[in-house]
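Thread amino acids onto this structure.
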């Protein structure tokens, strides 16, 4: 074996290991419980310095793949501008030092997503994410089953599992998303189906043990999408009927929501305030009107000495830590400019994924992930969060879709002569294993 071959082999084994470690850190599991608190998730100096090597690695990796980086920037300008806006928001922030520090963090968190999209194929990316969530599933099963004083809640939501995170909704939401990943891998990756099936069963179990109703809804949504895909691949007629049924069901749910919303929230085991969230949102929208365009600065609103945050806490008579809504959190930080950029980027990515479902099965994973991202953003502040695996995953999916869009735009399809065009009488099913690479 030559020196060049040895170096290539070493790089091929070291890079996935580095990515795996970084993704485990981005999951915010265990480290936060040991070195931070719910009130201060950043932790102390130790956690802040811990991220510096990852930021440096992301910067170097992106610079090496600068062509892919430029392609992503050209195809996802809203995502790039949104991240830069968070960084420069220190100029108008109510807490400039916090916005500057967290702005750097979200910028490099986004860069890490760019790097993953350019360095890994869909197959390698999903397999690596699967390994990450297998490790986390085992860790949470151990924490809840063998160390219940650490992994189970006793003061609030008694008996609900929280695993390696601070509270049950975090564990439930994470494994609702993980269950969709494992379900997709079970369907697509036949070589390792048994391993992914174990991950799927463990994820479902952890969602149920969390007792989080939103997470259970996310789990059902993810599984329904996979079953729907398998059903629709039978042919175009079935696909058309299914689409009609889905549109009718969505319209019916929307009608019930606007006419008698209490029916829906009772089904979910909630009240019309979504466990007090709407009371928080009402106060927050009043504060958003005070700084509508640019907000209060990235990561600055919920500081202990923040005047507007303390006004919210006094009005709700509760030590509110976040907005409990992804879009509202972005509006507080970056105003309607930032919120608009987030919505534009999300809709572009959703359209890219939906319109390529017939040709790329990986687009099914993208659609499901984006829908779950939207679902959990309704009740949790998961959008544009620094050092978060949820945001890294969103950016990676968005970047993969951007790179694919760029590839399609470069392909010039020759126009076939009219006499050679043939119409197919048979139905063309959706491919089950096509383009999973």
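Threaded sequence (437 positions):
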């Amino acid at each position: 074996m030559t020196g060049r071959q040895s170096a290539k082999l070493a790089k091929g084994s070291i890079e996935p290991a580095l990515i795996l470690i970084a993704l485990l850190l981005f999951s915010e599991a265990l480290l936060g419980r040991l070195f931070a608190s719910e009130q201060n998730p950043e932790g102390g100096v130790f956690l802040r310095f811990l991220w510096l090597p990852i930021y440096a690695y992301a910067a170097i990796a992106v610079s090496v793949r600068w062509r892919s980086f430029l392609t992503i920037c050209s195809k996802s300008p809203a995502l790039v501008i949104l991240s830069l806006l968070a960084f420069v928001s220190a100029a108008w922030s109510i807490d400039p030092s916090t916005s500057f520090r967290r702005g750097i963090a979200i910028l490099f968190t986004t860069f890490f997503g760019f790097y993953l999209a350019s360095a890994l194929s869909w197959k390698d990316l999903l397999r690596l994410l699967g390994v990450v969530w297998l490790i986390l599933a085992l860790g949470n099963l151990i924490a809840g089953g063998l160390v219940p004083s650490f992994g189970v809640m006793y003061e609030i939501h008694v008996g609900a599992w929280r695993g390696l995170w601070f509270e049950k909704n975090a564990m439930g939401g994470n494994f609702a998303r993980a269950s969709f990943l494992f379900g997709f891998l079970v369907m697509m990756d036949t070589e390792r189906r048994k391993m992914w099936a174990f991950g799927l069963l463990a994820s479902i179990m952890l969602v149920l043990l969390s007792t989080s109703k939103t997470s259970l809804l996310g789990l059902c949504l993810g599984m329904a999408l996979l079953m729907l895909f398998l059903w629709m691949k039978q042919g175009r007629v079935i696909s058309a009927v299914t689409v009609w049924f889905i549109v009718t069901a969505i319209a019916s749910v929307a009608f019930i929501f606007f006419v008698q919303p209490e029916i829906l929230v009772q089904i979910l085991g909630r009240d019309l305030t979504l466990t007090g969230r709407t009371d928080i949102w009402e106060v927050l929208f009043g504060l958003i009107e005070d700084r509508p365009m640019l907000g209060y600065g990235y990561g600055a609103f919920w500081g202990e000495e923040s005047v507007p945050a303390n006004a919210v806490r006094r009005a709700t008579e509760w030590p509110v830590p976040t907005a409990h809504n992804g879009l509202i959190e972005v509006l507080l930080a970056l105003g309607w400019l930032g919120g608009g950029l987030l919505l534009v980027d999300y809709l572009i990515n959703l359209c890219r994924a939906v319109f390529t479902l017939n040709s790329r099965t990986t687009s099914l994973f993208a659609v499901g992930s984006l829908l779950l991202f939207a679902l959990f953003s309704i009740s949790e502040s998961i959008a544009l969060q620094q050092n978060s695996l949820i945001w890294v995953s969103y950016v990676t999916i968005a970047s993969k879709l951007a790179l694919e869009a760029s590839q399609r735009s470069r392909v010039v399809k020759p126009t076939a002569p009219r006499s050679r065009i043939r119409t197919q009488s048979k139905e063309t099913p959706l491919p089950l294993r096509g383009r999973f690479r």
